[in-house]
Structure formats: structure tokens, C-alpha cells
Design brief:
Helix content: 40-55%
Distance between the termini: 89 Å
Shape: rod-shaped
Number of helices: 2
Structural class: alpha+beta
Number of strands: 4
Number of domains: 2
Radius of gyration: 29 Å
Strand content: 25-35%
């Protein structure tokens, strides 16, 4: 008599096939994870620019495509300027630099 759930050990050939399928699934999962990491890494390397928005009370003669300097070093360009009530929003595209809050605050002081 055969039961639905037989608790005896499977024959050696079936166990071997199960081990192979498990190994292939693990290998496939590993390759997909590696491909996803490479894809995201390439996207980050191909997009080395950040868009920052800074609010000013006045901008003087600042125009689109003007260079943005921080402590005398070019770090990006002005991409867009918008008016928002009493403030002027300046959209600055910077190179993929690590700018601290202190750097951005000093940038607002230099541009205004």
C-alpha cells in the first residue's frame, strides 16, 4: 500500500536530482543578484550629477547656465530659476560631490 506522504528516504537518484535543481536555483539567484548590483552601479556611474535647489531672496544678475563656484572651485551650473512668492528658487546641477550642509549654506551666501 502506498501512502500520499511516504516518510521513507527517496531513492538516491531522486535525491541527486533535487540537489542539482537546488544548486541551479541558488546559482541563478546569485547571478541575478550580481547582475542587479552591476546594473545599479553602472546607472550611478553614468549619472554623476546632483540637482540641488536653493532658495534666495534675490539673485542679482544670475542666469541659467552660469557656473556655480564654491570657495573658488567650479562645482556645477545653474539649470533653472523659478519665482516662488518672495523667494527665488535656483536649481543647481552639481557634479557628484559630497557637499555638506555647511558648504551649501556658504554657497547661498556667495551667490546672493
Amino acid at each position: 500500500m502506498t501512502y500520499l506522504f511516504d516518510m521513507t528516504a527517496p531513492p538516491q537518484n531522486q535525491q541527486h536530482n533535487f540537489d542539482l535543481r537546488s544548486g541551479y536555483m541558488l546559482l541563478l539567484l546569485l547571478l541575478l543578484t550580481l547582475a542587479a548590483l552591476i546594473w545599479f552601479g553602472i546607472r550611478l556611474l553614468n549619472n554623476p550629477q546632483d540637482l540641488r535647489i536653493i532658495a534666495f531672496e534675490q539673485i542679482g544678475n544670475l542666469r541659467i547656465d552660469d557656473p556655480v563656484k564654491l570657495r573658488g572651485i567650479d562645482i556645477g551650473t545653474v539649470k533653472r530659476i523659478e519665482l516662488l512668492r518672495e523667494k527665488v528658487l535656483v536649481f543647481i546641477e552639481t557634479e557628484n560631490l559630497l557637499l555638506s550642509t555647511r558648504d551649501i549654506e556658504s554657497m547661498t551666501g556667495m551667490l546672493a
